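Weekly puzzle thread! Below is a chain. First person to post its structure in token form gets bragging rights.
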Amino acid sequence: MVRTIRLAEVVAGVALCGLSMMVGCQKDRSSGPSVKVEPVSSVPAVAEKPIEEPARPTTAEPAVQPAEPNVAEPTIGLTLAFTVGQAATYKATTDARKSIEWMGPESGKPADFSDGYSGNYVEMTFEQRVEKVLDDGNAILGITIQGLKYRGVVASRPVFEFDSGEPNDRSDPLAALIGKSYRLEMSPRGKVVEVLDVESARNAVKTGSPAYSVAAKILSEEMIRDRHEIPPLSALKEGRARLGQNWSDLKSFAFSSMGAKSFERVYTLEQVGRDGGGRTALVEMKAIPSAAMAEEMHKRQTPGLLPGPFDTKDKYDGSLVLDLDTGWVRRYAEDMQTEWIIADPAAMQDTTVPPRAIKMAAGRMHRLELVDSSRRSEGKD
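Winning reply:
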């Protein structure tokens, strides 16, 4: 059932903050570099994604209980493998989006209310090469940018677009990132231990240009970690699992005035098999609301725009395909979608009046896909 608050309070807030209520009123995590926000007329406003708390492995039993693993089945190693000189080409895509929408007859729509959405889309193709394997098993990876697409939208209006594959964009300052490199220290469990040597790539874009804010965001430590980390592997403490086994971690997102959403991501090893390219393991992820982290986030929360209850629903899932012969990720993807419905109580009480409500939504999609690999190594298991 939809719970209600005063719709007028929401509309007043929207008029005050505009669509930035969903985008511009948020703050980045402190791990990334500060990015100067310029007026839209001169510099693209880089739409901010929800603030994400670092994922944390859980020790308690997950709330979702998949089928019990067969203890007679052998365990499968679910870790990355590193060999000096091994290289692969990946495409990483991130799509972060926020929107606000009037639900009801146009005649009942407040005069100062505007539908719209804001967000950014980043697609980066890069070569990942193992430069060195450390004594603890971690590896130093060289990342070279081969292709880049970016689209930033504020209040339904594109404010910056770039595609390195388009001839007309090759003179854009953001094109200076093509061919530039940075390095990572990566663990076999898919965790970025440290981001290295990224400043030279950031500084390749002309300071003060409209493209500089975009480059600084794309090459922030936060976005680099999101681009390369593999949460299903990081959450598996032992690095091995049986078919049907499940494990989990915690993940939260903060949505400024809309509050916070906290999830327990439950991973299950669903399948181990062979395809034309060799042995693969399929891990599925289904997320559920996490009461424990939600309570912790609520304690940190400051009073927001919406003082009362409202209806909300979420969908958050993902999957990982790991090549067991090479120890490379074939594909990793996750998609989080959430929305809030704020209904007009007056319209609900009067059955002769059509329903009126505001729907606010936010989403974040991340996908990492193997495009090509240059060398195959011996199987790990």
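Puzzle host: Confirmed. Bonus trivia for everyone else. The two ends are 51 Å apart (CA to CA).
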